[in-house]
Automatic annotation (TrEMBL):
Domain Impact N-terminal positions: 28-140
Record-linked SUPFAM superfamilies: Ribosomal protein S5 domain 2-like
The family this protein is said to belong to: Belongs to the IMPACT family.
Protein name per its UniProtKB record: YvyE protein
Domain of life: Bacteria
Species the sequence originates in: Propionibacterium freudenreichii
GO cellular component: cytoplasm
GO BP, one annotated term: regulation of translational initiation
Amino acid sequence: MSQSVEPASSGDRFVTLRAPMRNEQEIKRSRFIACLYPVSSSQQAREHIAELRKEFYDARHRPSAFVLGAGHTEARTSDDGEPAGTAGAPMLQALVAHQTAPGRRDLSDVLAVVVRYFGGIKLGAGGLTRAYGGAVSEALTRASFVVRQRMQLVDVHLPLAEAGAIEAALRNSSLHVVATRWTSTEGIVQVAHVPGEDDLTREAVAALTGGLARLTDAGSEWTTRAL
């Protein structure tokens, strides 16, 4: 089921899982196995859900929730046979409410599947909601994360005669140099910066190159770093 969620604070940065993980809890004799995966598309999420259905074929329920995109642009849930709203929705809420830093709720590109083995004691709607949401929240406290950041790219075109020395100066500065390529007439150093720092980057390049550089926009790319 498609869901609408509150957008994350920025469309240029979000946090996701470093690797898949699992965590198991027992609540009133029922086993709740929370399985978390980093995912980049709804298709990838569905593939993991299908794999878990095969692995846990004898489980009574395997509800799921996932959220995608910087800004939480897509979210879906499934109760997988549990009473409507008692499984997928609280699992999704646990994902989007997770604080990756004080005041920051930007976890995304994450799938949660909670496998339940019924233990013979009914939990009721409220109990199920707490159990499924709590299983995901508990798993997230044990997970490790990475930051996905969109970076703006700028190509710094340099006269061939001065390119070697200036490239070294750029690499030794606070600028983030991505790559260098050479042509018969110039050296081109690609620099990355976070969105909103275009003027600062251009000023820094101008200072380091003595005004010899010509700058062109080179688009953007997503990078990954440790949280």
